[in-house]
C-alpha cells in the first residue's frame, strides 16, 4: 500500500497537548538536572541504567502528542489506545451525541463494533472531520 496524503489531522488542542506532554517529561528533566547539579556533567550521565528509565518516562508524552485521528483519502488513521488504519469500506456509520453533558463522537464498523469513541472537545477542527464522515459514511440518528 502506498502512503496516502493526510487530508486533515484532529488532535487534542495544542495548548492541552503541550501541557500534558510537559507534565510527563518534567520528572525526567528534574531528575536529570538534579544529577548534573549534584555531580556535574560526566560520562555517568550516559549510563543506560539512567537513560532507559528516563526515555521510558518520556514515552507517554510522545503518545499524548501523537494521539488523535488523521483523515486520509481512503480511510481514517486512528491513534487512540492502539494505532490502526480503517478504510471507509470497513466503517459503517457514525453518530455525534451533541447533548451538552456528553458531546461524544462514535464510529462503528460493518460488524457493529465501536471503532472510535471520543469526546468532541478532544479533537481540533471537528467540523472538518464531521464533513468528511458525512461524505463517506452514513449518519446514525440514534445511538445504541
Report on the structure:
- The protein has 144 residues and is of the alpha+beta class.
- It has two domains: 11-66, no CATH class; 68-139, no CATH class.
- The chain is 39% helix and 29% strand.
- The chain is built from three helices and eight strands.
- Strands 1-2-3-4 form a four-stranded antiparallel sheet, with helices on one face. A four-stranded mixed sheet has the order 7-6-5-8, with helices on one face.
- The longest helix has 26 residues, at 14-39.
- The two termini are 34 Å apart.
- The mean pLDDT is 89.
- Bulk shape: elongated
| Residue runs with pLDDT of under 50 for 5 or more positions | none
Mean pLDDT: 89
Going across the biggest sheet, name each strand in turn: 1-2-3-4
Contiguous helical run count: 3
By helix and strand content, what is the structural category? alpha+beta
The helix fraction, in percent, is 25-40%
Mind telling me the C-alpha Rg?
Answer: 20 Å
- Beta-strand proportion: 25-35%
Main β-sheet description = 4 strands, antiparallel
Number of strand segments? 8
User: How many structural domains are formed by the residues?
Assistant: 2
Order of helices and strands: EHHEEEEEEHE
Distance N terminus to C terminus? 34 Å
What are the salient characteristics of this protein?
144 residues; alpha+beta; 2 domains; four-stranded mixed beta sheet; elongated
Amino acid at each position: 500500500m502506498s502512503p496516502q496524503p493526510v487530508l486533515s489531522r484532529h488532535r487534542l488542542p495544542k495548548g492541552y497537548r503541550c501541557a500534558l506532554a510537559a507534565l510527563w517529561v518534567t520528572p525526567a528533566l528534574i531528575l536529570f538536572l538534579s544529577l548534573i547539579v549534584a555531580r556535574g556533567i560526566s560520562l555517568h550521565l550516559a549510563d543506560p541504567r539512567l537513560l532507559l528509565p528516563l526515555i521510558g518516562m518520556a514515552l507517554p508524552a510522545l503518545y499524548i502528542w501523537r494521539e488523535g485521528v488523521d483523515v486520509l483519502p481512503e480511510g481514517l488513521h486512528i491513534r487512540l489506545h492502539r494505532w490502526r488504519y480503517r478504510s471507509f469500506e470497513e466503517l459503517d456509520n457514525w453518530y455525534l451525541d451533541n447533548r451538552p453533558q456528553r458531546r461524544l463522537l462514535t464510529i462503528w464498523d460493518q460488524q457493529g463494533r465501536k471503532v472510535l469513541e471520543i469526546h468532541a472537545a478532544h479533537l481540533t477542527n471537528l467540523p472538518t472531520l464531521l464533513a468528511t464522515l458525512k461524505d463517506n459514511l452514513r449518519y446514525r440518528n440514534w445511538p445504541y
